Amino acid sequence: MNINATLIGEAIWFGVFIWITMKYVWPPLAKAMADRQKLIADGLAAGERGKNELELAAKRSADALRDAKAKAAEVIAAAEKRGAQMVEEAKLTAKVEADKVVVASKAEIAQLLEQARAELRDRVADLAVAGAERILKREVDAKAHAEMLVALKQEL
Amino acid sequence: MASGEALTTSGYIVHHLTNLTVGHGFWTVHLDTLIVSGLIGLFGFVGMAKLASKATSGVPGKMQSFVEMLVSFIDQQVKDTYHGKSPLITPLAITIFVWVLLMNAMDLIPVDFIPWVLSMGGVHFFKSVPTTDPNLTFGMSLTVFVMMIVMGFKVKGFGGFMHEVFTVPFGAKLAPVNLLFRLIEDVAKPISLSLRLFGNMYAGEMVFILIALLGLWQLPLALPWALFHILIITLQAFVFMMLTIVYMSMASESHG
């Protein structure tokens, strides 16, 4: 065990290596590690945020879906109601129209009946005149009896 | 192998424990220790610096992951133990751990290999494990000691430091006793730090040399000892680093 100048040399080496480590080894590595740590932390935070946003979006889409469904149901109900109403209206209109047609038909029938009656009256009058001519076997003045015939016609 | 003439057991051992020296007296320099520790250190730290200069905060490569793991492990140890603000402590701890670990690992190269290669180049003495040289361990521990003192002055100021030296732990009335205690405590730190590392590695190397003397029987023995020695290599590097951190934290915190 002989202590000599080697000690000084080794102390110098030691100093040189401490200097290298302090200047060129530790700071860049520490920085790289700290940066990576930050990067990872940011990434994790971003992931968390993304997850939250996804959850929010899912909730929003579920809400929108529910709203749309509710609205659709409303629209369908309104349409059904309207449809029923329209059918009612149509029925009503048809009934009114049918009534009108019935009334018009009845009027026409009545008119036709009247016409037929009038014709019939004329014919009956003629028949009566003819009958009377044959019965009386003489010339009857149609004009003289016209008045009586008209009165007869009125009676029919 | 020994230079050829007298291949005795003690001759072989002494040969393996002799440094390659230049100079006389105090100014003797152990070239082997200086060169091996320097080359290993340059390899380790310049390599790490190169890697660090290309370090990315994105997905790290395998080497970067490895170095980051090591470095952040050491940084965690520093954070757990040292509560001061000096930016020196983590680099210091990294330097100690990596350098001592690499130098200790030289122990795993078979004891005769490097001396044998170099003897062909005319170099007859070579101790290839720098940490078995007390000059290196004392060089490191005394540097740590100086840093410790400087740290004490920086954090507490001259007055605070002197106050602590003379009043802790028994109060101002027993100032001489306190001073004596403090001296023993502080002197014991670098000595225990360096002798622990030196003793462990020297003994480990010695066992390797003794195993190498067994001829063919060294094969089944060298492997388990080398495996066991991996533990010692790592442990001693860790202990040196950890104690340095503890001493630095003690120097920057109040004792009382």
UniProtKB/TrEMBL annotation, chain A:
Coiled coil: 51-82
Keywords: ATP synthesis, Cell membrane, CF(0), Coiled coil, Hydrogen ion transport, Ion transport, Membrane, Transmembrane, Transmembrane helix, Transport
TM region(s), chain numbering: 6-26
GO molecular function: proton-transporting ATP synthase activity, rotational mechanism; proton-transporting ATPase activity, rotational mechanism
Main localization category: membrane
Protein location: Cell membrane; Endomembrane system
SUPFAM superfamilies xrefs: F1F0 ATP synthase subunit B, membrane domain
InterPro entries named among the record's database cross-references: ATP_synth_B-like_membr_sf, ATP_synth_b/b'su_bac/chlpt, ATP_synth_F0_bsu_bac, ATP_synthase_B_chain
Presence of the UniProt keyword Hydrolase in the record: no
Membrane topology: Single-pass membrane protein
Superkingdom of source: Bacteria
Any one of the GO CC terms: plasma membrane
Xref: NCBIfam families: ATP_synt_b, PRK05759.1-2
Function: F(1)F(0) ATP synthase produces ATP from ADP in the presence of a proton or sodium gradient. F-type ATPases consist of two structural domains, F(1) containing the extramembraneous catalytic core and F(0) containing the membrane proton channel, linked together by a central stalk and a peripheral stalk. During catalysis, ATP synthesis in the catalytic domain of F(1) is coupled via a rotary mechanism of the central stalk subunits to proton translocation. Component of the F(0) channel, it forms part of the peripheral stalk, linking F(1) to F(0). The b'-subunit is a diverged and duplicated form of b found in plants and photosynthetic bacteria.
Similarity-based family: Belongs to the ATPase B chain family.
UniProt protein name: ATP synthase subunit b
Organism for this UniProt entry: Candidatus Accumulibacter affinis
Gene that encodes it: atpF
TrEMBL record, chain B:
InterPro entries given in the database record: ATP_syn_F0_a_bact/chloroplast (IPR045082), ATP_synth_F0_asu (IPR000568), ATP_synth_F0_asu_AS (IPR023011), F0_ATP_A_sf (IPR035908)
HAMAP family: ATP_synth_a_bact
Species this chain originates from: Candidatus Accumulibacter affinis
Membrane topology: Multi-pass membrane protein
GO process annotations (BP): proton motive force-driven plasma membrane ATP synthesis
An example molecular function term from Gene Ontology annotations: proton-transporting ATP synthase activity, rotational mechanism
The name this protein goes by in its record: ATP synthase subunit a
Family, similarity comment: Belongs to the ATPase A chain family.
SUPFAM superfamilies noted in UniProt: F1F0 ATP synthase subunit A
PANTHER family for the chain: ATP SYNTHASE SUBUNIT A, CHLOROPLASTIC (PTHR42823)
Localization in the cell: Cell membrane; Membrane
Domain of life: Bacteria
Alphabetical list of Pfam families matching this protein: ATP-synt_A
Annotated transmembrane regions: 34-53, 92-116, 136-153, 197-219, 225-248
UniProtKB keywords: ATP synthesis, Cell membrane, CF(0), Hydrogen ion transport, Ion transport, Membrane, Transmembrane, Transmembrane helix, Transport
GO cellular component: plasma membrane; proton-transporting ATP synthase complex
Function, as annotated: Key component of the proton channel; it plays a direct role in the translocation of protons across the membrane.
PROSITE patterns according to UniProt: ATPASE_A (PS00449)
